[in-house]
């Protein structure tokens, strides 16, 4: 009798593990990496030119779109490469649990975008999704030979954002496998401040990309 009860317990546990694994693998994840102003001043700080940083509003928008959002306010003066390696470990953990790489998207704005570029190269997974926002050309990123894109890459830039250019040069020089690639230029007139705000102009393309809509 006891043997039968133990057998049934093992069956129930096995079923629960399978169900849990399927739930985890069916979910979609966004890693959101914010800009350097939030890193230095905080999630709700007010920029003298661009106004209030809408970090929490951005996170809320992605959650309302149905994603599990992984994000945090980084420590001041965070090292780009080290944080990228930390993010790769988190992504590897999800993949190990059964999450498909195509259901994981890394979205980075400004400095966060530079971190996302390194994540792309370190992870080297052709199916993962990446969105680089307002970061190509910033602080000489185009000149960094160690940046090599890999995966499905969406680049978003703002026409009035002085000093920020196209990601095409970095994409073309990348030795890794770049699957889908698309670049969008916005015209909000907000300069670098466009990425401080939870604007549908850039959030909607991010959501579409994270859902596998690469057109």
Please name the defining characteristics of this protein.
215 residues, alpha/beta, Rossmann fold, six-stranded parallel sheet, two-stranded antiparallel ribbon, 7 helices, 8 strands, 19% strand, globular
Whole-number tally of structural domains: 1
Portion in beta strands: 15-25%
Count of helical regions: 7
Instruction: Tell me the number of strands.
Output: 8
Distance between the termini: 60 Å
Elements, N to C (H/E)? HEHEEHEHEHEEHEH
- What's the average pLDDT? 89
| Uncertain ranges | 14-25
CATH topology: Rossmann fold
Q: Based on helices, strands and strand pairing, what is the structural class? A: alpha/beta
User: In percent, how helical is the residue content?
Assistant: 40-55%
Shape: globular
The CATH class: Alpha Beta
Q: Strand order across the biggest sheet?
A: 4-1-5-6-7-8
SSE inventory with pairings:
Layout: H1 2-26, E1 29-33, H2 36-41, E2 46-47, E3 51-52, H3 55-64, E4 68-70, H4 80-96, E5 104-109, H5 111-123, E6 129-133, E7 151-158, H6 168-173, E8 178-186, H7 200-210
Parallel strand pairs: 1-4, 1-5, 5-6, 6-7, 7-8
Antiparallel strand pairs: 2-3
Summarize the structure in short.
The chain contains 7 helices and 8 strands. Helix 4 (80-96) packs across helix 5 (111-123). The protein has helices at residues 2-26, 36-41, 55-64, 80-96, 111-123, 168-173, 200-210; strands at residues 29-33, 46-47, 51-52, 68-70, 104-109, 129-133, 151-158, 178-186.
């Amino acid at each position: 009798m006891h043997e039968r009860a133990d057998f049934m317990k093992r069956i129930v546990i096995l079923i629960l593990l399978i169900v849990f694994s399927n739930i985890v693998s069916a979910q979609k994840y966004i890693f959101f990496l914010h800009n350097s102003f939030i890193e230095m001043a905080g999630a709700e700080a007010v920029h003298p030119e661009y106004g209030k940083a809408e970090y929490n509003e951005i996170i809320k928008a992605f959650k309302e779109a149905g994603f599990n959002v992984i994000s945090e306010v980084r420590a001041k003066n965070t090292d780009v490469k080290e944080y990228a390696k930390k993010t790769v470990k988190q992504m590897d953990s999800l993949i190990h649990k059964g999450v498909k790489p195509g259901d994981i998207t890394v979205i980075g704005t400004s400095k966060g975008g530079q971190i996302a570029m390194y994540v792309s190269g370190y992870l080297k997974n052709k199916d993962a999704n990446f969105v680089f926002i307002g970061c190509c050309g910033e602080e000489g990123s185009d000149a960094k030979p160690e940046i090599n894109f890999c995966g499905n890459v969406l680049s978003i830039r703002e026409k009035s954002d002085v000093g920020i250019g196209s990601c095409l040069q970095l994409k073309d020089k990348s030795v890794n496998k770049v699957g889908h690639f698309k670049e969008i230029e916005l015209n909000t007139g907000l300069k670098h401040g466009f990425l401080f705000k939870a604007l549908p102009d850039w959030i909607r393309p991010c959501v579409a990309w994270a859902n596998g809509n690469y057109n």
